[in-house]
Recover the amino acids of this structure.
């Protein structure tokens, strides 16, 4: 199973135009350095929360690496994202211990609650749901993480209750 690594907070929405000038210091830092593509992609994602489409052409023109090759690298490595993620990343562990403790029930309950498929972001940008290979909390199986918070020994109802609590906290914070 593929592990999707992500930036913790989206800095740019999908339809927003990125200010690519912020990348200039990185181009200067890595100018004429072999193997600079991955650090440039990492810096881009750190700045914007994902890799905006327009960044590929700029990186290509600055490095001389063809756009197709940059896309190849960006899509090969699980750490890179081509679209924004939600404010809260909900990772459901599907490692062996969690799988045998019915992690699928957690994922199914969360899909129903959030009205998204695995890997998608809610329309309000509050949550992105992801299945991951292992969170390293086998004794707490089944486990999910939201941001840096780990929740264990869950069932579908408990997972949904946690999501609703996060929604309520977010709504309270925005008032």
């Amino acid at each position: 199973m593929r592990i999707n690594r992500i930036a913790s907070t989206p800095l740019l929405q999908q339809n927003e135009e990125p200010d690519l000038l912020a990348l200039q210091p990185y181009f200067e830092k890595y100018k004429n350095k072999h193997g600079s593509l991955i650090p440039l992609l990492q810096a881009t994602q750190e700045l914007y929360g994902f890799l905006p489409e327009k960044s590929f052409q700029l990186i290509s023109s600055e490095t001389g690496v063809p756009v197709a090759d940059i896309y190849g690298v960006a899509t090969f490595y699980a750490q890179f994202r081509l679209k924004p993620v939600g404010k809260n990343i909900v990772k459901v562990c599907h490692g062996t211990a969690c799988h045998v403790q019915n992690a699928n029930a957690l994922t199914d309950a969360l899909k129903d609650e959030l009205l998204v498929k695995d890997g998608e972001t809610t329309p309000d940008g509050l949550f992105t749901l992801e299945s991951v290979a292992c969170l390293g909390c086998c004794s707490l199986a089944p486990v999910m993480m939201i941001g840096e918070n780990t929740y264990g020994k869950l069932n579908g109802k408990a997972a949904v209750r946690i999501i609703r609590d996060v929604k309520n906290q977010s709504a309270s914070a925005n008032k």
User: Anything to note?
Assistant: The longest strand covers residues 88-93. Residues 13 and 76 are 23 Å apart (CA to CA).
